[in-house]
Sequence to fold (261 residues):
Amino acid sequence: MAVYPELKDKAVLITGGAGGIGIATAAAFLAQGAKVAIVDISADALAQAEKTLNASAGYLISIVADISQEEEVKSYVEKTVAAFGTIDVFFNNAGIEGKVAPLIEQNMADVDKVFAINIRGSYMGLKYVLPIMYAKKSGSVINTSSVGGLAAGPGQGVTPYVTSKFAIHGLTRLTAVESAKYNVRVNSVHPSPVETRMMRSLEAGFAPEHEAEAKANIASGIPLGRYAQPSEIADMVVFLASDASRFVTGTPVRVDGGMLS
Ligand SMILES: NC(=O)c1ccc[n+]([C@@H]2O[C@H](COP(=O)([O-])OP(=O)(O)OC[C@H]3O[C@@H](n4cnc5c(N)ncnc54)[C@H](O)[C@@H]3O)[C@@H](O)[C@H]2O)c1
Fold:
């Protein structure tokens, strides 16, 4: 992995930090010598993540919070600033897939939940983190969208999820324009399927009891012929946080093995 010396001792905040992509990204930032706060709704998953990351004390903290609750967003931001003094990098990443069903069969409570976490939760993260970055005139934000935030694609039955990921794409582009005068960059990553719990859930939703076929079918639509590893998303996030991407903002970055080429 590339080493970016400027990331040493930087304060990095990651939501969904106990999930597949979140843990891999936390590991990648810790390897750069950064201080990392992982936020997740699941205390058990956070405890497991801490064991996996096995970081030296003082460089990794974990915070239990539901990103769809404004008071909890305020609180996770305050706790990170209390621990590290500031926030230099925000990986606004937590999200859920919702239920797999055609639009006309979606239950509105399930739809509202996807929007509350993926859209409203990501929005509120920006609302509370950006003032800290604006005040010191530096920072890098990476929002997690999806290939599903750029194109309809072959996946059917995930309209709430795709709607939310298109929203994050739009949110990223306008927030980048608003933030540029403060020297704060805002980009989005758009992964194709990644080897995490989320794809196991979607494969089961697309083809109950035929998950392996569903996976093979999805992978066959990716020119590189396979799902991404979480570390491959993490490497891009670290690049977008580093000075190597200093002139990149408002950009939807595909990490998709050529899926949308
Ligand atoms: N896995 C994929 O194929 C894929 C592809 C494209 C985009 N993404 C996106 O990447 C992000 C991470 O997904 P992942 O693959 O690591 O899945 P994951 O399910 O392993 O991780 C998601 C994490 O978010 C946490 N979370 C869920 N709701 C929360 C809430 N309200 N507050 C705080 N934390 C909450 C979960 O507990 C979990 O640890 C998501 O936004 C997802 O939509 C994933």
In short: The two ends are 25 Å apart (CA to CA).
